[in-house]
């Protein structure tokens, strides 16, 4: 059962999940700053910056105040204390190394073109893998509720199709792509920039390549997902559209579904 500290940690880690928000925190280490000052180093709109700042406030990492006509932001003292306590408690349980092929995802977390989500799923790795690669199971978790997957086709092989249709608020949003790499019970990578037959996709509104990695963990399975984009601006737009929250909720749905398969 979730406790208040669990919800506090969820908000904090989700706030840290985007590289642009970590950059803002680094800016604020120099002292309080006005919104326009925080915006100037970034290639994003004021609207997108405000979305990131709201997420940082929700996570308890920053606080804001109105001074005249401007709003200033500052680091919130002691905001990392809950996360540090939790990490110290988990340190003895966290495996130092994972078996399998080396992962690029930790390096991607420092890449401004990539967005990442990490969760510990309380389900065994074989069950999680089934949910990633079996269409009838993928349909049940891939879209964060209340959105739903109404169509899915996945061919779990390099060059296979990765196709979904997500329905939300009366609109159907098809997404077509290609599986680039699959390592059994370890890694699945696909992109919406290529189609079957390795044909380049035309007119993709939000191009990215996604990788999901899973590995054994003392509590079940560690799940790491990353979406890499052609440039920082596209990554920031994806984040502003709700990447961290949406992909995080979907991962949690995956964990609950996989737990029922054991």
TrEMBL record:
Family classification: Belongs to the AHA1 family.
InterPro entries: ArsR-like_HTH, ASHA1/2-like_C, HTH_ArsR_DNA-bd_dom, HTH_MetalResp_TranReg, START-like_dom_sf, WH-like_DNA-bd_sf, WH_DNA-bd_sf
Domain (HTH arsR-type) ranges: 1-95
Keyword Transcription regulation part of the UniProt annotation: yes
CDD domains listed in its UniProt record: HTH_ARSR
Name listed for the protein in its UniProt record: Helix-turn-helix domain-containing protein
Keywords for this protein: DNA-binding, Transcription, Transcription regulation
Alphabetical list of SMART domains matching this protein: HTH_ARSR
Record-linked PROSITE patterns: HTH_ARSR_2
Source organism: Rubellimicrobium roseum
Pfam families attached to this UniProt entry: AHSA1
GO molecular function terms noted in the UniProt entry: DNA binding; DNA-binding transcription factor activity
The keyword Transport is annotated on this UniProt entry: no
